[in-house]
Design goal:
The chain is of the alpha/beta class. The protein contains 16 helices and 15 strands. Bound molecules: adenosine monophosphate (AMP) and zinc ion. The site of zinc ion has 3 residues, from loops.
Length: about 500
C-alpha cells in the first residue's frame, strides 16, 4: 500500500515512514486501564489519542487488529513490587469481591469510552484471563537465565540482561544511574539488585488474588501481562505499541526486556507515547485530587468547572492539541472548543444546500490535501482541524454569496468532509447540531411565509415576521438571491 504516513517513534526518537510488518495488516497494542477507580479526563485523553490512530489507519485502508488490555491484577499500589494490589485494596475498602471491583470499573471505563465516541478495540484481553501464559513466560525467562527465584517470587535479573542487551533502550535510563538512585526498598531482602523487578510474586497471607504456580501460590508482576498478551494476539514482532508517557518507565522498558529475554524479540517496531493532560501545570491524577470524571465534566458539577461541557466539545478540545504535547485544562479553552465544534459541524450541515455556480472561486482540493497531510504527519489533528476551519469559512462565504462553488466540487466536498469529520475525527452531531438543523427548517418556513405575505401585499404581516425575528436576534437580509438570515 502506497501512503506517506509518518509516526514519531519514541524508541528510535525519529519520525519514521510507517511501514507495517505485514501490510495491509497492522497490529496495535495499547495499555488499557487498571480497573480500580473511575476513569478521569487524563485517561480519556490517552485512549482518545489512540482512537484517532486506529481510525486513521483504518481510513488509510489497513486492516488493524487493535488490542487494548484490562489490567485486573498485578498492579500494586505505588507501581512497586511490594505491597497491596490496587484492586484488592479497593475490594477491601468497598467490601466487594476483587472481581466485583474489576467489573464495576470495567463497566465505567466502557461507558466513558462510549460517551466520547472512542471505538472498541478488536480484542480486550484481561491479565487474569492469561495467568497460564504469564507463568509460561516466566519459565522461559528463567530457562534462558535472565531471572532467578527467591522464596516463591521470581525476579528479572536486570544486570544479567544488560550484559547482552540495552536496559534503557526506550526510556534512555542508564543502568549505573538507576543503581545509584533506586531505593532498595522493594523486596530488598530478596532482590540481587534494587533495579531488578518482579515477574512473579509470592502471595503473602492476606493477599486476595492468587494462583498456583511452579513457585507456589502467587500472582504475576504488572509488566508481564502486556508482554504476554501482545505476543499472544499480535505475534513476537508487531507494529505499534502505545500508552501514556508515564508508562515509558518502568512499564514499557520492562516489557521490552521481558520480550527479548523470553523470545529474543523486541515486540513492537514503533512505540508511541501520549503526553499528559494537566491542570494548572500538574498531571491530572486521582491521587492529586484534580481529576474530574466525565460525568462531572458534562454536568459542570466540580469546583474547577465554570459550566458543563458536552462530550463532543471535550473531544474537540482534546483534538485541538497534538497528542505528544501537554494539554492544560482550562475553562477558556473548553469554551473556545464549544464554539469551534459548533462552527465545524454547522459547516458540514451547510454543504448540501450550498448554491451552485459555474466555477469555484477557490481550489477546494487544497483543503483536503492540507487535512490529510496533517494526519500523515504523526496524526496532527490540530493542523487538520485548522484546514477544516478554513474550509468552513469558505463554505459560509458560499452560503452568503461571497464565494462560489461548482457542482463537481460540491459533490466532492460532500463525499469527503462529513466522512472525515465523522469517521477519522470521530466527531458526531450532538443535540446542538440537530437543533441547528431544526432552526434552519423553521427559518425556511418563516421566510416563505413572509414572501407570501409580501406577494399578497400584506406588508403588515411581513413586517411583523421580520420584527418578531429581530426580537430574538435574528436578522433577515433581502438580496438578489432571495432572503438570507443571520443570528446577531
Ligand atoms: P492507568 O489506569 O492509571 O494505568 O492509566 C491508563 C492510561 O491513562 C495510561 O496509558 C496512562 O498513561 C494514561 N494517563 C493517566 N493519567 C493521564 C493524564 N493526566 N493525561 C494523559 N494520560 C494519562
Ligand atoms: Zn501495559
Amino acid at each position: 500500500m502506497e501512503h506517506p504516513l509518518y509516526i514519531q517513534n519514541t524508541l528510535t526518537k525519529e519520525k519514521e515512514n510507517f511501514i507495517p510488518i505485514e501490510s495491509p495488516f497492522v497490529g496495535m497494542y495499547v495499555c488499557g486501564p487498571t480497573v480500580y477507580s473511575d476513569v478521569h479526563l487524563g485517561n480519556v485523553r490517552t485512549f482518545l489519542s489512540f482512537d484517532i490512530m486506529y481510525r486513521y489507519l483504518k481510513h488509510l485502508g489497513y486492516k488493524v487488529r487493535y488490542v487494548r488490555n484490562i489490567t485486573d491484577v498485578g498492579h500494586l499500589v505505588g507501581d512497586v513490587d511490594e505491597g497491596e494490589d490496587k484492586i484488592a485494596k479497593k475490594a477491601k475498602a468497598e467490601q466487594l469481591e476483587p472481581m466485583e471491583v474489576v467489573q464495576k470499573y470495567t463497566n465505567n471505563f466502557h461507558d466513558v469510552m462510549r460517551i466520547f465516541n472512542i471505538q472498541n478495540p478488536s480484542i480486550e484481553p484481561t491479565a487474569t484471563g492469561h495467568i497460564i501464559e504469564q507463568i509460561e513466560m516466566v519459565q522461559a525467562i528463567l530457562e534462558r537465565g535472565f531471572a532467578y527465584e527467591v522464596n516463591g517470587s521470581v525476579y528479572f535479573d536486570v544486570l544479567k540482561y544488560s550484559e547482552s542487551e540495552n536496559y534503557g533502550i526506550l526510556s534512555g535510563r542508564k543502568i549505573d544511574e538507576l543503581l545509584n538512585n533506586t531505593r532498595d526498598l522493594d523486596g530488598q531482602n530478596e532482590k540481587k539488585n534494587a533495579v531488578d523487578f518482579a515477574i512473579w510474586k509470592k502471595a503473602e497471607g492476606g493477599h486476595l488474588m492468587r494462583w498456583n504456580s511452579p513457585w507456589g501460590e502467587g500472582f504475576p508482576g504488572w509488566h508481564l501481562e502486556c508482554s504476554v498478551m501482545s505476543t499472544k494476539y499480535l505475534g513476537k514482532d508487531f507494529d505499534i505499541h502505545g500508552g501514556g508517557m508515564d508508562l515509558k518507565f518502568p512499564h514499557h522498558e520492562c516489557e521490552i526486556a521481558q520480550n527479548k529475554a523470553s523470545q529474543n524479540a523486541g515486540g513492537a517496531k514503533y512505540w508511541v507515547h501520549t503526553n499528559m493532560l494537566t491542570v494548572n501545570g500538574r498531571k491530572m491524577a486521582k491521587s492529586e485530587g484534580n481529576g474530574f470524571t466525565p460525568e462531572e465534566l458534562i454536568s459542570g458539577n466540580h469546583k474547577l468547572l465554570e459550566q458543563g461541557y458536552s462530550p463532543m466539545t471535550v473531544r474537540f478540545f482534546i483534538l485541538q492539541c497534538h497528542y505528544a504535547s501537554t494539554l492544560d485544562f482550562s475553562n477558556e479553552a473548553l469554551k473556545a472548543a464549544e464554539k469551534g465544534y459548533a462552527r465545524l459541524m454547522n459547516a458540514v450541515q451547510l454543504i448540501k444546500d450550498l448554491p451552485i455556480s459555474d466555477e469555484s472561486s477557490q481550489n477546494l482540493n487544497d483543503f483536503k490535501a492540507r487535512a490529510l497531510a496533517a494526519m500523515n504527519d504523526d496524526f496532527n489533528t490540530p493542523i487538520a482541524i485548522a484546514a477544516l476551519f478554513d474550509l468552513s469559512k469558505f463554505i459560509n462565504s458560499v452560503k452568503d454569496g461571497k464565494e462560489q462553488i461548482n457542482q463537481m466540487d460540491k459533490d466532492h466536498l460532500l463525499g469527503w468532509m462529513p466522512t472525515f469529520v465523522d469517521e477519522v475525527l470521530g466527531l458526531s452531531q450532538e443535540e446542538q447540531g440537530r437543533n441547528n438543523e431544526l432552526v434552519d427548517e423553521l427559518m425556511k418556513a418563516f421566510i416563505a411565509l413572509r414572501l407570501q405575505a409580501r406577494e399578497n401585499k400584506n406588508y403588515e404581516l411581513s413586517d411583523q415576521i421580520r420584527d418578531g425575528l429581530k426580537e430574538v436576534n435574528i436578522t433577515l437580509k433581502d438580496g438578489k438571491e432571495g432572503t438570507s438570515w443571520s443570528i446577531d
